[in-house]
Amino acid sequence: MTVKTMAEYAAEDKSPEILFWVGCAGSFDDRAQKVTRAFAEILTAAGIEFAILGDEEACTGDPARRAGNEFLFQMVALQNIETLNMYGVKKMVTACPHCFNTIKNEYPALGGHYDIVHHTQLLQQLIDEGRIKMTEGGTFKGKRITYHDSCYLGRANGIYEAPRDVLRSLDGQLVEMKRSRQNGLCCGAGGAQMWKEDEPGDKRINMERTDEALSLNPDVIAVNCPFCLTMMNDGVTGREKQNEVMVYDLSELIVRNMRVS
């Protein structure tokens, strides 16, 4: 699979259908790279012409702003906006809710206006349009799947049903945690918490959330965010359940079960 950059498209005087914003985690974290590849495989299988920025993509600045470094946020945000506007980017998709929230809600104030969707929204659209279809009796048919709402996709942007619609296409048994949708519990990594030391207490947030998920006896914990993926994976490993319960991003579930129409 070959993925072209915006620079390569520009050199051919062409424009892709959509820009895939990979994000820092999707670029550099070993586990999140698997999500990036899975989503790229889905886009390719669905016949979507897409590109990435490659080396020209910088951090959106989300962690810097959440941690209080407004100067650094504006510096990297303006750099990204200049790059995106130079290529005339209009439509974007990302697998990171942090990137999604920042580009959608915070870049406009700095001159960055883009039509950006989260990858779960695009996955739902592709399934609804029949551009990707699930294999009948696939890997996850009948499996118990619980879904963790990430903060920046859920409460921050009100996107609850698209991910669940995607999961329903797997013919699994979707089991909801008590704290879900608007009442969902953070995985513990939001708001730049990923980068700071633990606060005083006797239980980590990710362990609290993992215990809630494990109480449902799931086969799979589904997430939509690279930070949630890390925190829930760590939680499952901490409870020594990594051989029984798998933690997957939705794109990884789809790529294992899809057939192209």
Automatic annotation (TrEMBL):
Q: Which residue intervals define the domain Cysteine-rich in the entry?
A: 19-104, 145-232
This one is known as: (Fe-S)-binding protein
**Where is the signal peptide, in residue numbers?**
none
Which superkingdom does the taxonomy of this entry point to? Answer: Bacteria
Q: Which GO terms describe its cellular component?
A: plasma membrane
Which PANTHER family does the record associate with it?
A: IRON-SULFUR-BINDING OXIDOREDUCTASE FADF-RELATED, IRON-SULFUR-BINDING OXIDOREDUCTASE FADF-RELATED-RELATED
Keywords recorded for this protein, A-Z? 4Fe-4S, Iron, Iron-sulfur, Metal-binding, Oxidoreductase
Cite the Pfam families for this sequence.
CCG
Q: Care to name a GO molecular-function term for this sequence?
A: oxidoreductase activity
Q: Does the keyword Iron-sulfur apply?
A: yes
